[in-house]
Amino acid sequence: MKYLAISFAIIAVYFLAGLVGLEFTLTGSNSSIIWPPAGIALAALICKGPRFAPAVFAGAFLTNFTHFGSPDLAGMLSVLPSALGAMVQALVGYALIARFVRLPTMLRNIKDPLLVVLLGGIIACLINALFANAAFSGFVITDPIAFAQNSFAWWAGDVLGVMIMTPLLMLICTKVVDPRMHKVSAARKVTVASVMVIMFCVVMYLFHVLNSYEYNEREARFIRTSYDISESLQHQLNIAIKALEMNERYFATSEQVNANDFRAFNDGVLTEDSGIYGLAWIPKITRDEREEFEFALRAQGYKDFTIKQRHNLGDMDVADDHDVYFPIAYTIPYSRNEKAHGFDVYADDPVVGYSRRQLLDFARDNGKVIATPMFPIVQAESQYGFILYYPVYRDNYRRQNDTMRIEERRERLIGFINGIFVFPYFMQPIRQNAATYGVDIALYEVHVSESRERLLYDSRTANHMEPTEAFSLKNGQYKASEIFHVAGQVWRLDMFSTVGYGQGQSWILWAVVVFSLLFTGFICLFMILITARTEIVEAMVRKKTDELVNAKQFQDLIMYHNPDLVFVKNQALEIVQANHAFLEAYPEYQREHVIGRSSKEGYSKRDYDEFLAEDMKAFAQGSSEKIETITFPDGRKRTLLTRKIRFEDSKGEPFLLGLSRDVTERETLIAKLTDTNVELEEFAYRTSHDLRAPLVSSSKLLSMADIALDNDQIDHARKCINHAETSIKKLEALINDILQLTQAKNGEEEVQDINLKILVTNALDKISNIDGYDRIKIIQDIDVNQTIAVCKSRLTLIVENLLSNAVKYADPQEEQPIIRISAHFSRKNLVFKVEDNGLGIPPEHQAQLFSMFKRFHPKVSFGSGLGLYMMKKSADILGGEIHFEPPVKGACFVLKIPLHGKTQDAA
Prior knowledge:
Blueprint: H1 2-22, H2 36-48, H3 53-68, H4 73-100, H5 111-123, H6 126-136, H7 144-173, H8 186-253, H9 259-265, E1 278-283, E2 285-286, H10 290-299, E3 308-312, E4 315-318, E5 324-325, E6 330-332, H11 334-337, H12 355-366, E7 370-371, E8 375-376, E9 384-393, H13 397-400, H14 406-412, E10 413-422, H15 423-437, E11 439-447, E12 452-458, E13 479-486, E14 489-497, H16 507-560, E15 565-569, E16 575-578, H17 580-583, H18 605-621, E17 623-631, E18 637-648, E19 654-662, H19 664-710, H20 714-746, E20 752-754, H21 756-766, E21 777-782, E22 786-790, H22 792-808, E23 818-826, E24 829-836, H23 867-877, E25 881-884, E26 891-898, E27 904-905
Helix pairs in contact: 1-2, 1-3, 2-4, 2-7, 3-4, 4-5, 4-6, 5-7, 6-7, 7-8, 7-16, 8-15, 8-16, 19-20, 20-23, 21-22, 22-23
């Protein structure tokens, strides 16, 4: 999951950096002056490891596909080389840097950042610049100069990206793995990043200002260029109309013009620069004049001449009979217009319908030159063109009277001068002129009334016709349009700058911005080194400061956080320094007055005299040590192990260092252990004696029973066996008491809610089989109606033992033995009391009442002597106490235990 999160972060940062890089793309060019993603990809592998190379590939693929690809398989495959090259370039750069630079690096010397730029930038960036460019051309380099220029631009952009981005990101993101190396300080990161961002923003602003200026300059230059191109088209049209006007005058003023005269008159007119595909004379021929006209043309050398009519594309045949014909009589150049020779332009034409006849009638009636729309002309049916028709009237009547009536125009019309134009041929001079400027052209026929247009010519396609895919303006391209009114038709000329239009003028922009970026990169490297030097000095200062702080903290740890009492006395036996534990021995109001005074204040004379003796001994002998029990000024009484050591300061003045450790618990534990050892010795002795005696007695009795059986003394054997059984039962009872004692001392039990009345009732039922129970009067005064939270087995042991002892040691001489059981709450304590009027405890034994193996009435009832001892231990475990209160007669035991948790009403 962490790997995926980091990978997505690299892809996102790469993509966003690509957006920044595109901001540095020159208008009309696909080259970016700086490409930050190259630096980010290298920094990602240096900081996070080469296993994140797939993330670099994905980021490069996404960036290139979004901006340069297309949503199809070909578009996806087109960006694969650059994405693969970006990944390989980053891997090679990482490998070179890892080989010659110790990673991770804090960039604290001049060598490391320079090697990063040299190895990861200048050297490694050659990979994508050469590989991706070669892959885009299918590894077939047809234009080495263009390939070298594109590769250099790509390489320079990647190098600048590495130079500016990689050291900065290494500084920010490199993780320190050596604990001896200090991390890069936040101040250093902020300083370098701030300088880089400011410089980068300044360069970006400068770039956009200069790029905008260059864009506007190129746009103005393009507008001037487009004006020149549109003027060349207008000039071309003027030449064509001028040629028609010349021929119109010639035929209008001449009585007889043959084919040779026509060719001679137009000699030099139909040059390639004119764009005129052909000129033709189209006379008006009536039905009666047809035969004579055809004969005359054949006499001029056209032996197969006849008036023809088009029935379909490529299908020409002899024209049908009509009242009037307008055949092409003379045409130049004849070689490329021969197919149209004799063609009746006034006849029905299934290719163009009646539109041409309508145009001819319009030209005749108005006396104006008229142009046809685009259609396949007879001379070159595989290509499209247009024709200009210029009406010719006899006796030059149109020029003498431009206001003549339509009937007069129709009557005086003798024919038309025909200008034939094929668009590729007509537009060739304009296209060549536009190409010299780096401009493409497209000519459209516009139908304003129908709000539609039709392409006439496009220099961007191979056949100059409609492209298979619509063209779109790319970044940095310009477009200009000009409307032309051509003999009744409306044309629009669109002019487009090529992608590289005017780029030769942008070298100043390149130089300024590249220099600015280089300057920014060097400033960043300089800031990295300067801040590194500052950081090293700060690290040295911080190290010394840390040492002093650590020493002070160590001293404070000893003086103020040590639980032992630490103090320093001067030769006058005044306390000059003390830790927190020492000061807490005084009441709060006295603590601020301890330093500068002797220990006389606050302690008893006996304690102070002992302090003084130990102080003098330590000053004389160099040290002293003593275990002492003292009463502190705050009233606490504790046992201390005090060591006092003489030392001298830097000036040679003697002082006394005192260390007092509270050993109260240790001494108490030692005392308890001593008592426990005595108790264990007694326990071992008594248990070994009490365990051994029944066994020896039982063994002898069983031997005597065996002898009696051999002598047939059955009664005597049975008596011996009964005595042995009694001894074994005593042994069993002793063992059970020892087990109960072990459980009472070592067992652990959870607190639970119990009902005291039920517990007492169960205990009485359990001892009801003891001899004499029936004659005892039991009085219960249990004022506890709630369940109590307590360790059940501990309380049960105490209650059962108290009640069983009261029954066992009832006075046989008492007329009415009584056991009184009472219980009540007192200050969050349960007070449980058992009184009887039995034999009681002799006064001389009451001091040893709760000791082990103490039996006070052995002749009345056998016992191990552990019952009261176990009750005492159980009461201790319950956190309470049990004691004996001697009544006038009998015994009275009182158990007091604290309650755990909240009591609840008994059900």
